[in-house]
Amino acid sequence: MPGFEKRLARQPQLYSRIGFVHSYRPLAADELELLLNNDPRALGLALPMGCGIAAEAVNAIQRNTSANLRMVVRLLSQAGRILEVNGMDVITQAVVEAARESPVIGRA
Q: To 10 degrees, the CA torsion angle through 72, 75, 78, 79?
């Protein structure tokens, strides 16, 4: 955010607790596919054991999140909830679309 660092510097109690800022670039298509096809639980997501991701779902995730890692994690978090509620074990394009329509903010 432009000007955020200056505004934050006016709050010395908070500013002194920030060590560094790192900006992440969006994931490349092959990086996203590798991340999703390996073990998404490594991201701290509570997905069902042996959860699979359909090929069309990988494309839908990339389209909906612009390969932004934070958005990917949020989308997969909601997709995991949808899988659990519906007793499914594969993330499909329909699951991705349902997760996109009802995003998760914070942890439940």
A: -90
